[in-house]
Amino acid sequence: MGFFSADIETVDDLFMHTLNATYYAENKIINALPTMIEKADNDMLKQAFKMHLEETMRQVKMLPGSDAAGSPAIDGIIQEADDVTSDIDNPFVMDAALIVAAQAVEHYEINRYGSLIAWAEELKLDPRIVSLLTQTLGEEKAADVKLTQLATQAINRKAA
Amino acid sequence: MGFFSADIETVDDLFMHTLNATYYAENKIINALPTMIEKADNDMLKQAFKMHLEETMRQVKMLPGSDAAGSPAIDGIIQEADDVTSDIDNPFVMDAALIVAAQAVEHYEINRYGSLIAWAEELKLDPRIVSLLTQTLGEEKAADVKLTQLATQAINRKAA
Q1: B11 three-class SS
Q2: What residues of B are in contact with residue A83 (Cβ under 8 Å)?
Q3: pLDDT (tens place) for every residue of chain A, 160 residues total
Q4: For residue A59, which of A93, A17, A29, A101 has the smallest C-alpha distance?
Q5: How far is the C-alpha of A77 from the C-alpha of A75, rounded, in Å?
């Protein structure tokens, strides 16, 4: 049993546990993004991270979760980002590594919000919850698409 | 600097580091899947995990990586899956939790293979490498779609 996790007996419990893990993850990302902004070399990438930090801060204020669950997954994803970027000096290689690290975070979040929405619909929760989660999922997907565009259009080409 | 990571000076280095982290992750998944097969209640889910185990064992044999890099990200994703499923007795809730855990793994892999393909193309690596990575990416995406189908069609409905 995880130290922070309560027994999960129903899908409601699983929904709440996952919501809380996502809340924890979003706060962890808010703490990680300023360092990523600092490490980024490309101005468009810096700007994309800044925008996503503001977006995430707004999302987490609306999210009806709590710090009741940790998330070893997001801890590990951010640890891997720290490990890899600590080994890089070249600014173009750094940007390529930052993009893949940020996309790992986005993919984790897309997975979590996707499941939360499916469960919220099954559980017939307040439609405002579904609507909020759906809006956030859309923003995470848009952030992922933007990172792919930045990677393919400019940064990887310079780095190669 | 991560204990297992070498200095990353070029996109070639970043490609090799990420390839090795992915190789480590695939092996970690091969170790985790038998427990997930055992924990799964729904026969179609059990079958999907069995198929994915065989697929992953085949993929990793072809992958030109090594154990030279660890992956705190996949360690954390699998730790979170263990923590959550250890807290669950109800077989339908277990299946819902296993699906979201497996999809977290798929999303991590889709992210890694997507980046590896982009870098391999930029670096003009042997087209057979790109072809192999592209085939594997397709299989990971198909596994993700299958899990979503299982989740939405049957398991979540029973669990709710």
Answers
A1: helix
A2: 1-2, 5, 72
A3: 445 445 899 999 999 999 999 999 999 999 999 999 999 999 999 999 999 999 999 999 999 888 888 999 999 999 999 999 998 999 999 999 999 999 999 999 999 999 999 999 989 999 999 999 999 999 999 999 999 899 877 655 565 5
A4: A29
A5: 6
Collapsing DSSP to helix, strand or coil, A7 comes out as: coil
Contact A11 B151 (CB under 8 A): no
Are B108 and A107 inside 8 Å of each other by CB?
A: yes
Q: Which of A24, A41, A87 should we substitute to test contact with B (largest number of B Cβ atoms within 10 Å)? A: A87
ipTM over 0.85: yes
Is A118's CB within 8 Å of B74's CB?
no
Q: Which of B7, B87, B108 lies closest to A7 in CB terms?
A: B87
pTM: 0.91
Angle between helices A91-122 and A43-62 in degrees, nearest 10: 20
User: Which H or E run includes A80?
Assistant: helix A72-86
